[in-house]
Specification:
Layout (H helix, E strand, L loop, with lengths): L4 H19 L3 H9 L10 H25 L2 H28 L1 H4 L3 H22 L17
Length: 147
């Protein structure tokens, strides 16, 4: 847990910034969100957006940690590279969507930055597990019977 604490603190701070930025949508984007996309109105309150971002990042962190512990070194490395590529792909597709979809473009740059920070958080998770040494699992063999 000590090795993961700085990363989790970083993810919490990144989530707070992302939640704040997502709550700062443009005036037109805010009106559109309240009229047409009511399921996203929770993003207007910064701590609710931050909690949502942190929850998803925490879930991704747990998935990477389970993969790190359960797979071999090479398998874990491949899984983390796949996670990294998915995060970078998501970052690119989000950027492309925000640039070419008119309703998303109206949300404003601050709103966009909040979503970019989510993908950057996943990139950091994947990179931290990719360059971390795998800790061997110790098994207690007290119950073995010698014959």
């Amino acid at each position: 847990m000590k090795r993961n604490f700085p990363l989790l603190i970083f993810l919490a701070m990144l989530s707070c910034i992302a939640g704040y930025m997502m709550s700062r949508s443009s005036f037109i984007g805010d009106i559109g969100m309240h009229i047409f996309y009511k399921e996203y109105t929770f993003l207007d309150i910064w701590w609710q957006g931050a909690l949502a971002v942190f929850g998803v990042l925490l879930l991704l962190f747990i998935v990477h940690a389970v993969l790190q512990r359960s797979l071999s070194k090479a398998g874990a490395r491949i899984a983390h590279v796949i996670g990294l590529l998915l995060a970078l792909g998501g970052l690119y597709l989000t950027y492309h969507d925000f640039r070419h979809d008119f309703s998303h473009r109206l949300m404003g740059e601050r709103f966009h930055i909040g979503f970019y920070l989510f993908w950057i958080g996943w990139v950091f998770i994947a990179l931290s597990f990719l360059f971390r040494k795998k800790v061997p699992i110790e098994i207690n063999r007290k119950d073995e019977v010698t014959q």
